[in-house]
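Forum: Protein Structure Q&A
Topic: Joint prediction for protein chains with partners

I've read a bunch of threads here and the consensus seems to be that you should model interacting components together rather than docking separate models afterwards. I'd like to see that in practice. Below is the full input, 462 residues plus whatever partners are listed. Could one of the regulars post the assembled result?
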Amino acid sequence: MSTFSLRGLYDELERRITPPVETVVHSDEFAATMKIIGRTRSAIGGRIDAAGAAVLHAVNLPAGSDIRKLRRQVGDLDYEIRRLRRELAERDENDGSPAEEG
Amino acid sequence: MSIVDGPRSALDRVRQEIERNALRARNGIKMAAGMTAPRLGATPRDEVWRDGRARLFRYRSDEVRYRPPLLIVFSLVSRSYILDLTPGNSFVEHLLGAGFDVYMLDWGVPDERDSANGLEYYADAAIPAAIRETCRRSGTEEVNLLGYCFGGNLTLLHAAHHPDSPIRSHSVVACPVDYSEMPFKSVLTSSADDLERAIGEDGNVPADVVYGAFRSLKPVAELTGYVDLLERMWSDEYVAAYQAMNGWGTDHIPLPGGVARQMATMLSANNGFMTDRLYLGGDRVHLSDIRTPFLAVLGEKDHIVPVAAAVPVMDLVGSADKTELRLKGGHVGLVVGRTAAKTTIPTIIDFLIDKSEAIR
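Posted by a regular:
Agreed with the consensus. Here's the joint model:
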């Protein structure tokens, strides 16, 4: 019995709260605020990362940002290799010779 | 009678509530201990092709009664197991039961190696390769193609750019084309700077940003979900369904940075599908070049891809044979749950049977 009345209370609350909450969350102002928060967070994070990297670089150690940069570069290479492999397979197919199974 | 029944029914309710509280406690402990994890994506399948993180799966079936095979192309921002959620509540299971040879193109979880992937990779390279492999494996010349959500965008782009692609029929489910009607406008129309800031160090839009965008559409829904769970935690069936759905709903994957940039400019800012300003690899492509039999399935209660964002596809494609199926379901309800099992899925199956031929 009490569960039902509590549920009823929540439903009533939700019915009243949802429209204004959605109005706020879907507003341009909210989006702008979130963007500012995001920019601030990334600016602060960037400075902390840079400071940490400077300390590690001072003792000739790679920082997390160096590893991430390397991973991106390896990722770009992987992308290029896959693209070339596809082009070769297509060329093989157009030439009539059997393409290697992927 | 009423004098006796009143106290008895009150007593029954108290007894029922005590029993349910015991079950709630039991299920709560099981959930906390991770002992009730549902079996997701359980239909047996084999990986038959892969390229990078993209994988093509073929579902096992001894009862294939129709051809050509059905190739499902999934979205880029969520996990494909929603189409094979749990045994008994699986779109794929229904399709297999109907006699189709079902393949699923799953994009996997992108990482640094996928950050440069643009729409061209999906529409011009991966989908054609998957179609070729599907035809080769099934010994057919054509496929029935089905794109789910953003996967529908990918199949539309592919079909528009390659009008000679061996597609017998083309279906899209909950697929947006009018991006001005999409609820993520503030996210999709971010400035180039904001977009670059949203892109993570691996070059992709992080999964939590994708999840945040979806969650912002219904900010109170998560809390309501918890309240519903608390109320019905006594039911094993409800707990299993909640875990499956909630697990999927919070299990997003990163969006490749290359695609995010094209979405922000070509699909959203330029509203490319609607304005006929779609470019792939330097070529201009037109949805009007799609001539294959076409089915669009859309949900009237879809809060992610509203009807207004999905319905214009009917006017944009050039197919003479085109069908619109508008249902009361939401985005996921089109393929999961009782309504899907009763209405959407049988209608999609009827459409596909109509475009297929029986074997033997």
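The mean pLDDT of chain A is 84.
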